[in-house]
Amino acid sequence: MAWLRTFVTACVLAAPAWAQEAPEVPDAPEPPMTYERLGRIIFALDENAQPMGTGFQLSISGVPMLVVTDPAADRMRAMVPLRPAEGLTAEELMRMMQANFDTALDARYAVARGQLWAVFIHPLSPLEKDQLISSLGQTVNIARTYGTLYTGGALQFGGGDSPGIQRQLIEELLEKGEEI
Fold first, then answer.
1. What is the mean pLDDT of each run of 10 residues along the chain (180 residues)?
2. What per-residue confidence (pLDDT) applies to 164?
3. Are 150 and 167 in contact (CB under 8 A)?
4. What distance in Å separates the CA atoms of residue 118 and residue 104, rounded to the nearest whole number?
């Protein structure tokens, strides 16, 4: 278990300052997220969004997305289809799992029904407006950076493998540049 203590210590020390600060307390709590409130936010983001059962089809920065809710289970899910899961290599799966740990942030890579997805899954009622908007953006970002940086587009959580992998690319480019 010494390795676990070392790992946790490295994560805490590597965590950005924002992750160690106490969160701000809002003046008044937001109302619970409902299907109707979620719809108002989605239509503010994409006026061409379409209701679909207990969810919505929308596009963010040209990326088509589905947002589905299950009010009875108090859950929601935002999803962007990426590609068929068939043919994913062990290396690709490993890289996505690494990103799920440190760079995908609130969004995640997932496989369901033979498809690879960029997803955000959360309880519906406690979801706050800014959290929803940020997470939809992160989901679009991990969809866009699949196969390259695998990032939600915000800060990275320390202690993972992604910074070293991303730094490796820079080192390779610097090495190539030395010959010029």
1. 47 46 68 95 95 96 96 97 98 95 93 98 96 92 92 65 50 50
2. 53
3. no
4. 9
* Both structure tokens of 46: 């994409």
Beta-bridge partner residues of 79: 66, 119
**Contacts of 104 by beta carbon, 8 Å cutoff, 6+ apart:** 138, 142, 150, 151, 152
Domains of the chain as residue ranges with CATH:
29-148 (3.30.1460.10)
**Contacts with 46 (C-beta within 8 Å, 6 or more apart), sequence order:** 58, 59, 60
151 vs 48: CA distance, rounded Å: 27
CB 10 within 8 A of CB 158: yes
- Round to the nearest angstrom and report the end-to-end CA distance of the chain: 48
The pLDDT of residue 29:
87
The SS3 assignment for 108 reads: strand
Q: Which residue has the tokens 């994560």?
A: 11
**Distance (Å, rounded) from C-alpha 42 to C-alpha 40?**
6
Looking at residue 152, its pLDDT comes to 84
pTM listed for this prediction = 0.74
Tokens at residue 51, please? 């209701």
Nearest to 145 by CA among 159, 175, 165: 165
- Helix axis angle for 129-144 and 35-45, nearest 10°, is 50
